[in-house]
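Hey everyone, long-time lurker, first post.

I ran two proteins through the pipeline my lab uses and got sequence/structure pairs for each. Pasting them in order. The first:
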Amino acid sequence: MNNGKLTEYIIPPGTECVGEWAFARCRNLRSIHIPAGCDVSNRAFESCPALSEVYIYHDSPDEPVAGYPHLLALALRTWDHEAAVLIDNAGDPCTFTDYFDSRLLRYINTPDDDGFDPFLAGGEEDYDNATALNEHIRNVRMSKAELIYERLSITAPVTEELKSVFTDRLVRFNPEISFAVLTPPSDHNEAYRNLYFELGLNKLTDTESLLSIAGKDTRLRAMVLDHNQGNDSTIDAMIL
């Protein structure tokens, strides 16, 4: 708990339980390995924003891991009060994706301002409640978009109905949110970038806006220019 130096942890085989807040606020923790038969308490990974891979093992540490490590990590980051049920369902990929799909559907239908806790302490004259609320909403939308990207990127089947719902949400966020998720460099974001253009989300806005969000990322800017040719009149100017 509160260990800022911890980046990876392998829970020893035979461990029976990970208690509440065991890894809470380990802000640089990226990877965790959980052995078979180990119970995980609900708040074990509360406030772990860097969590990227969570591995659940079968009966032997030498057997292949189960589930989808990045999808599980994103779920734990988002719903950190529900770690127990997420881990319980993660041993079998089909069971986990079924549970994840239902949970994600509820999540994206929750108002974006849900859970906002305004600053209540007095004497802070420079505190801007409206700005804080807008930042909260943006963070929630970024979280929703990232979860959708990851779910649509993995090989597990997703029903056409759910795919339509998920894609519609990315469309609603375009370009400020769904495209902004693509900007940090990572292996996962490479898959998200391909999906973004495959779904044609780039066609819903102009080239200049996408290039502005892409910033100095030359690879992402090149993808925008390549896929947006003919979409609008700004393309020649952007190339020049």
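...and the second, right after it:
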Amino acid sequence: MRHSIPIPISRGAVLALALVAASACATKNDVRDLQADLQAELREMREARDEFYSSLVATQDATQDATERELLDTRGEISRQLRDLTQEFRQLVEFTGQIQISVDNLADRIDRLERSGANASRPSSGSASGQPRDGLLAPGVGGDADADYATAMELYRTGQFFGAQAAFDDFLADHPNDELVPAVHLNLGDVHYRNGDPDAAIASLERVGELFPNAQEVVQAQYRIGTIHMEQDDDDAAREVFRRIINTWADDPSALAAGIVQDARDRLEELGG
């Protein structure tokens, strides 16, 4: 025996059937009323359909926007973590290289001491006696200044800037009065900037003029300070530095100062005077 499945019928369909059933005997007014009811029902259905469609589109857009934001946030976090890991790995490689260079230098020093034999007990001229050289402590008072500087510069030249920073800091601690100190502060300023610390870079460069006002590295340090201000979009500070360079070293006879003064004029022109 078959079982019939009931099919739901909308109110509009009921009205339509009633209109057909009543059309034979209904008056024109009744027919018009039924037609009006049917049209009203159709309008309600269209409005409900349009409202549902608009809601669906809005939900889809909101879901898409939220998904895109989550994807962007996730990508940004992954990129940040990769940058951090790359930075840490680079530091590890640099420090490993620094350790290897230090070990090699130590081995060379031990070898030189072993070969010097009895000469190690005799005071050498200058460095071992601690006599000043050109008004500064002789290199070697805190160790071998030339070798330490060469180690730091090797790290610097090979792009191992975190290792170079540590090596330059060690040099300043071991040889605070050596004649290479101005060059160390100059290079250390660049190292700090490359390592993402412009404030420390400027502070180190300022030390050149504070400690050694007559050193040739002073004008170089000042020019580098000006370029750092430019790169940091601090144009007013950059203009002040470049003007000071021009006013201070314009009459300096050295080729180094003359070249830097011209560079300062060029930068000042870029900044609009």
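Reply from user beta_strand_b:
Welcome! Quick read of the second one: Confidence is low (pLDDT under 50) at residues 118-142. The domain at 132-270 is CATH 1.25.40.10 (Serine Threonine Protein Phosphatase 5, Tetratricopeptide repeat).
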